[in-house]
Amino acid sequence: MTTLYNSETFETAYTATGVVREVEKFLGEADRAALLGQPRPRAYDDAGHPLVDVELVRKVINFGQPATEIIAVRMAESPETKSLQPGPVRFSGLAVEVYANKNGRLVEHWKAASVLSAASTRRAGESA
To answer: For residue 56, which of 86, 97, 16, 13 has the smallest C-alpha distance?
Structure first.
Protein backbone atom coordinates (compact mmCIF):
# COMPACT_ATOMS: atom_id res chain seq x y z
CA MET A 1 0.00 0.00 0.00
CA THR A 2 1.28 3.46 -0.88
CA THR A 3 0.09 6.67 0.76
CA LEU A 4 0.84 10.07 -0.76
CA TYR A 5 0.70 13.25 1.32
CA ASN A 6 0.73 16.60 -0.45
CA SER A 7 2.00 20.06 0.50
CA GLU A 8 -1.19 21.10 2.34
CA THR A 9 -0.25 18.51 4.98
CA PHE A 10 2.99 20.34 5.79
CA GLU A 11 2.35 23.79 7.24
CA THR A 12 5.61 24.41 9.11
CA ALA A 13 9.00 25.25 7.67
CA TYR A 14 11.62 22.52 7.78
CA THR A 15 15.24 23.10 8.74
CA ALA A 16 17.71 22.74 5.88
CA THR A 17 21.23 21.57 6.69
CA GLY A 18 22.60 23.41 3.66
CA VAL A 19 23.68 20.12 2.04
CA VAL A 20 22.49 19.67 -1.55
CA ARG A 21 23.66 16.51 -3.33
CA GLU A 22 23.58 15.67 -7.01
CA VAL A 23 21.50 12.56 -7.72
CA GLU A 24 23.40 9.89 -9.63
CA LYS A 25 21.72 7.97 -12.42
CA PHE A 26 20.82 4.40 -11.51
CA LEU A 27 23.10 2.02 -13.38
CA GLY A 28 22.96 -1.73 -13.76
CA GLU A 29 25.93 -3.87 -12.75
CA ALA A 30 27.33 -4.06 -16.30
CA ASP A 31 27.09 -0.27 -16.74
CA ARG A 32 28.82 0.33 -13.39
CA ALA A 33 31.67 -1.95 -14.40
CA ALA A 34 32.08 -0.12 -17.73
CA LEU A 35 32.37 3.22 -15.89
CA LEU A 36 34.83 2.01 -13.25
CA GLY A 37 37.09 4.91 -12.24
CA GLN A 38 34.95 7.50 -14.02
CA PRO A 39 32.38 9.88 -12.53
CA ARG A 40 28.87 8.47 -12.52
CA PRO A 41 26.33 10.25 -14.74
CA ARG A 42 23.70 12.49 -13.14
CA ALA A 43 19.99 11.72 -13.02
CA TYR A 44 17.54 14.04 -14.81
CA ASP A 45 13.80 14.59 -14.52
CA ASP A 46 11.35 14.19 -17.42
CA ALA A 47 11.91 17.83 -18.48
CA GLY A 48 15.69 17.34 -18.67
CA HIS A 49 16.61 19.21 -15.47
CA PRO A 50 19.33 17.67 -13.24
CA LEU A 51 18.01 16.23 -9.96
CA VAL A 52 19.31 17.09 -6.48
CA ASP A 53 18.55 15.91 -2.95
CA VAL A 54 18.08 18.73 -0.41
CA GLU A 55 18.94 17.54 3.11
CA LEU A 56 16.58 18.51 5.96
CA VAL A 57 16.49 17.85 9.69
CA ARG A 58 13.29 17.21 11.62
CA LYS A 59 12.50 16.28 15.20
CA VAL A 60 10.56 13.06 15.72
CA ILE A 61 9.47 10.84 18.57
CA ASN A 62 11.06 7.41 18.19
CA PHE A 63 9.93 4.73 20.66
CA GLY A 64 8.77 7.47 23.04
CA GLN A 65 12.08 9.35 22.92
CA PRO A 66 12.82 12.59 21.07
CA ALA A 67 15.18 12.07 18.15
CA THR A 68 16.54 13.94 15.14
CA GLU A 69 15.96 12.51 11.69
CA ILE A 70 17.65 13.54 8.45
CA ILE A 71 15.52 13.39 5.31
CA ALA A 72 16.29 14.17 1.67
CA VAL A 73 13.81 15.97 -0.59
CA ARG A 74 14.36 15.19 -4.29
CA MET A 75 13.75 18.00 -6.75
CA ALA A 76 15.05 19.61 -9.94
CA GLU A 77 18.16 21.75 -9.50
CA SER A 78 17.48 25.50 -9.46
CA PRO A 79 19.26 28.73 -8.44
CA GLU A 80 17.52 28.45 -5.04
CA THR A 81 18.95 24.98 -4.40
CA LYS A 82 22.45 26.10 -5.43
CA SER A 83 22.43 28.93 -2.87
CA LEU A 84 20.52 27.16 -0.09
CA GLN A 85 21.81 28.03 3.38
CA PRO A 86 21.23 26.19 6.68
CA GLY A 87 17.99 27.29 8.31
CA PRO A 88 14.24 27.31 7.78
CA VAL A 89 13.06 26.39 4.30
CA ARG A 90 9.70 25.93 2.61
CA PHE A 91 8.84 24.07 -0.58
CA SER A 92 6.14 24.30 -3.20
CA GLY A 93 4.61 21.01 -4.25
CA LEU A 94 6.09 19.14 -1.28
CA ALA A 95 4.89 15.54 -1.17
CA VAL A 96 5.90 12.39 0.66
CA GLU A 97 5.11 8.87 -0.46
CA VAL A 98 4.98 6.31 2.34
CA TYR A 99 5.11 2.59 1.57
CA ALA A 100 6.24 -0.72 3.06
CA ASN A 101 9.36 -2.19 1.47
CA LYS A 102 9.90 -5.92 0.87
CA ASN A 103 11.13 -6.33 4.47
CA GLY A 104 7.95 -4.76 5.85
CA ARG A 105 9.60 -1.51 7.01
CA LEU A 106 7.95 1.83 6.29
CA VAL A 107 9.86 3.96 3.78
CA GLU A 108 9.33 7.64 3.00
CA HIS A 109 10.18 9.15 -0.39
CA TRP A 110 10.13 12.97 -0.29
CA LYS A 111 9.89 15.18 -3.37
CA ALA A 112 9.11 18.82 -4.14
CA ALA A 113 8.53 21.04 -7.16
CA SER A 114 10.76 23.87 -5.94
CA VAL A 115 12.24 25.75 -2.99
CA LEU A 116 10.34 28.90 -2.08
CA SER A 117 12.35 32.10 -1.61
CA ALA A 118 14.05 32.75 1.74
CA ALA A 119 11.67 35.64 2.46
CA SER A 120 8.68 33.30 2.30
CA THR A 121 10.13 31.04 5.02
CA ARG A 122 9.71 33.74 7.67
CA ARG A 123 6.41 34.17 9.43
CA ALA A 124 4.69 37.52 9.61
CA GLY A 125 6.42 39.82 12.10
CA GLU A 126 9.83 38.08 11.90
CA SER A 127 12.82 40.00 10.66
CA ALA A 128 15.83 38.78 8.73
So the answer is: 16
CA distance 38 to 48: 22
Cα 121 from Cα 91, distance rounded (Å): 9
Which of 69 and 127 is assigned the larger pLDDT? 69
Q: Is residue 126 part of a domain?
A: no
Range of the domain at 108: 2-121
**Residue 127 within any structural domain of the chain:** no
Between strands 65-76 and 106-111, the pairing is: parallel
| CATH assignment of the domain containing 68 | 2.40.50
- What does pTM read for this prediction? 0.73
